[in-house]
Amino acid sequence: MNITLHDYRRCPFCIRVRMVLYLKNIEHKIVNEPLREWTPWMLEHVDKPRVPVLHIITASGEEIIMPESNDINVWLDENIGNKEFTPQKNTPAYQQMVDWWEWCGEIFKHQIDLFKYGENRIFDTEKHRVHTKDLADMIQKIEDHLQIGTYLIEDRLTLADIAIIPFIRQIMRTRN
Q1: 25 vs 19, 60, 125, CA distance in Å?
Q2: What is the CA 23 to chain-centroid distance, rounded?
Q3: Alpha helices of the chain — where are they, by DSSP H?
Q4: pTM above the 0.90 mark?
Q5: How far apart are CA 59 and CA 45, in angstroms?
Q6: Each residue of 126-164: pLDDT tens digit?
Q7: How far is CA 28 from CA 55, 62, 120, in A?
Q8: Distance, CA of 134 to CA of 126 (rounded, Å)
Q9: Cα 69 to the chain's mean position, in Å?
């Protein structure tokens, strides 16, 4: 199997995929995609270019092109090596994982962007205080949930945890 990740180094969605590739020790190549200056391959093969995109050529020659970090990670976990990070489908744990993904992608990321850049990418010191408090409340939600156990949904690292880690990293690398 030939696996290539089309990637942008600082993208939290790409970091998620790189984490799973690393944790599962999956041999792969990385193609760095300069944002908004996509490689010819991206422009030719992906309808709406954005990273990450996993390009797989199977042993039988089948070509799979997969965008969306969470979908990529489920595929990697379920198709390469032992299934390590994905709860059983159609279980409460699987639904909790999906809920964490949605919260992270739709709510948490938006709040981090407000904290880092401000509304409409215009930083305002007064509004930053509000954005900081709102973000602190969201981090507290994660902390409160982790009081129950070491991980978000099971007694092991799952794709829910992996989905959030890169966003925590982003917060840690911004101004106070």
Answers
A1: 10, 22, 44
A2: 14
A3: 12-23, 40-45, 69-79, 92-102, 109-117, 125-146, 159-172
A4: yes
A5: 20
A6: 888 999 999 999 999 999 999 989 999 999 999 999 999
A7: 10, 17, 37
A8: 13
A9: 5
Determine the Cα–Cα distance for residues 13 and 144; give it in Å rounded to an integer.
24
How many residues are given for the chain? 176
- Both tokens of 123, joined, read 């930083």
Q: Closest Cα to residue 44, out of 77, 72, 6?
A: 6
Cα–Cα–Cα angle for 128, 133, 145, nearest 5°? 140
> Based on the number of CB atoms within 10 Å of its own CB, is 132 exposed (0-12), middle (13-18) or buried (19 or more)?
middle
Which amino acid type is present at position 100?
W
Give the tokens for residue 111: 């709040």
Query: pLDDT tens across 58-85, in order?
Result: 999 999 999 999 999 999 999 999 999 9
For residue 28, how far is the Cα from the chain centroid?
Answer: 18
CB of 76 closer than 8 Å to CB of 16: no
Amino acid (one-letter) located at 36: R
